[in-house]
Task: structure prediction
Amino acid sequence: MIYITGDTHGDVRRFFEPQLPCAGWGPEDKIIVAGDFGMLFGNGETDGKKLDLLARCPFQILFLDGNHECFPEIAAYPEELYCGGKVHRIRDNIRHLMRGQVYEIEGLRIFTMGGGYSIDRMLRVAGRNWWPEEMPSEAEYAEGMENLSRCGYAVDVLISHAAPTGSMLDLKKDGTFSMLFPQEVPLGNYLQKVAGMTRHRHYYFGHIHLDRELPGNRTALYYAVYCLNTGMCVKAPDAGKRG
Ligand SMILES: [Fe+2]
Result:
């Protein structure tokens, strides 16, 4: 089965009980992280130890990149094809789902677009805990459109790190946010366009650190875990939350 959750920010506890309901999961089971995986963050040996620990999980870990990742570290891993789309293979059971890809996994067609804007950019140091590749490039946007065109703009699930603009406006309307961050609007608009032109049954995204069901079959993910095959929530929001 395929499961999905939100930002894990380098916290390995998110891949073990009780935070992940993974008792009985095997090599065919997969957990997707909708960006801000955070296990590759330019921390050398510390990153390596976390990845080696996660490599012992009996299931697969698939992650989109978010804005809090060390992109050069991810890009140094070998690029290969996985279920019809490009990935970086980090460990045998850990793969980075790249931007603008369409994968066919367990009969589900899944579009991915990582990236996002760091609202705490001013507090971060370039090359130490912030990297300029956080926002998608024009080439990555174009690759996404090309891959969607090749599958007739028909997928089962859309996954991004950042939120589509329509969902941000919904959250602004209900008072959750007071404004949209202008630096991220081009990405949000692209995601909104993708959602508008693509047949899909559900849209999942991370980034905003909220667990929330939103209009238009959209789900903002943080700690909750959903099953993509059934669409059911298998771990309630905030259950097992630590720190
Ligand atoms: Fe995050």
User: Anything to note?
Assistant: Residues 97 and 120 are 25 Å apart (CA to CA).
